[in-house]
């Protein structure tokens, strides 16, 4: 695997997402639902957001991929997440976990660990969240975001240095990154390549969006515009990717 492979994967995933419009079910927090849905739609995917326990299994059965985001976890969302994961497992569907704020609550960290035992394809979090999670089973791709995004799996590490500091000033860019990641996993069987491609895509989009914004308030909408306009040329020109393999 080379950086050029990741750029090629990102371009291919982008056009497949636009052609196939994969359904991405987001069992997510109440803070970022609109931004996450808008970002997925701008990308070309088809989001759904219900967390109702009566319906979540039906939605999972009719979507290509699911992301579980623990941002505003409450008893109802916890129960719905259990039902959704059971259905995803029954159908052999892949899913992504975003353990938002698991570093701030022992209860949430314990629930995140329960979900990890149920086998998401990818876990994405910021530095503090991934530090709380610590090690993951070998079968799960680990994505730690920040000024640089580090994607780890099977002794290989991919570092994506794209992105913009304004991303840290807009609530929901991490959650949207988790949603974009899920859309890429929906169209690319290799979850590590999909994750690296997705982080490159949102990072390059952010770099293209920044000059069109005057600060955090205008950066969010500009990011949506840039996700919709993103193309292979931009990925090729702006991607900054390094890959390393563990020795031995
Ligand atoms: N200082 C930064 N420079 C460039 N990109 C950043 C920076 N901080 C965050 N990002 C990007 O913003 C997105 C969200 O990352 P992060 O802030 O770590 O997540 P969260 O919002 O969950 O805390 C990722 O795509 C990441 O690459
Ligand atoms: C602030 C906040 N509180 C609960 S969920 C949430 C949104 C987190 O979004 P992100 O981690 O993507 O900035
Ligand atoms: Mg987050």
UniProtKB/TrEMBL annotation:
Gene3D superfamilies: 3.40.1190.20. GO terms for molecular function: ATP binding; hydroxyethylthiazole kinase activity; magnesium ion binding. The keyword Kinase applies. Pathway: Cofactor biosynthesis; thiamine diphosphate biosynthesis; 4-methyl-5-(2-phosphoethyl)-thiazole from 5-(2-hydroxyethyl)-4-methylthiazole: step 1/1. Its EC number is 2.7.1.50. SUPFAM superfamilies: Ribokinase-like. This is hydroxyethylthiazole kinase. It holds the Pfam family HK. Keywords: ATP-binding, Kinase, Magnesium, Metal-binding, Nucleotide-binding, Thiamine biosynthesis, Transferase. One of its GO terms (biological process) is thiamine biosynthetic process. Its cofactor is Mg(2+). It catalyses: 5-(2-hydroxyethyl)-4-methylthiazole + ATP = 4-methyl-5-(2-phosphooxyethyl)-thiazole + ADP + H(+). Signal peptide: none annotated.
């Amino acid at each position: 695997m080379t950086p050029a492979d990741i750029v090629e994967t990102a371009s291919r995933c982008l056009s497949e997402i636009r052609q196939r419009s994969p359904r991405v079910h987001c069992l997510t927090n109440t803070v970022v639902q609109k931004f996450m849905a808008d970002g997925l739609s701008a990308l070309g995917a088809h989001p759904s957001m219900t967390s109702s326990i009566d319906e979540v299994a039906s939605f999972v059965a009719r979507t290509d991929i699911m992301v579980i985001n623990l941002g505003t976890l409450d008893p109802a969302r916890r129960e719905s997440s259990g039902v959704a994961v059971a259905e995803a497992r029954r159908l052999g569907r892949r899913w992504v976990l975003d353990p938002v704020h698991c570093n701030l609550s022992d209860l949430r960290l314990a629930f995140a660990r329960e979900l990890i035992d149920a086998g998401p394809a990818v876990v994405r979090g910021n530095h503090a969240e991934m530090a709380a999670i610590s090690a993951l089973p070998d079968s799960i791709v680990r994505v730690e975001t920040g000024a640089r995004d580090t994607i780890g799996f099977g002794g290989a590490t991919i570092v994506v240095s794209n992105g913009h500091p304004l991303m840290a000033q807009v609530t929901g860019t991490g959650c949207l990154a988790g949603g974009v990641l899920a859309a890429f996993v929906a169209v690319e069987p290799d979850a590590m390549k999909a994750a690296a491609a997705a982080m490159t895509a949102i990072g390059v989009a952010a770099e293209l969006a920044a000059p069109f914004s005057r600060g955090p308030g205008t950066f969010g909408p500009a990011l949506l515009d840039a996700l919709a306009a993103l193309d292979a040329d931009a990925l090729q020109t702006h991607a900054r990717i390094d890959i390393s393999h563990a020795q031995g």
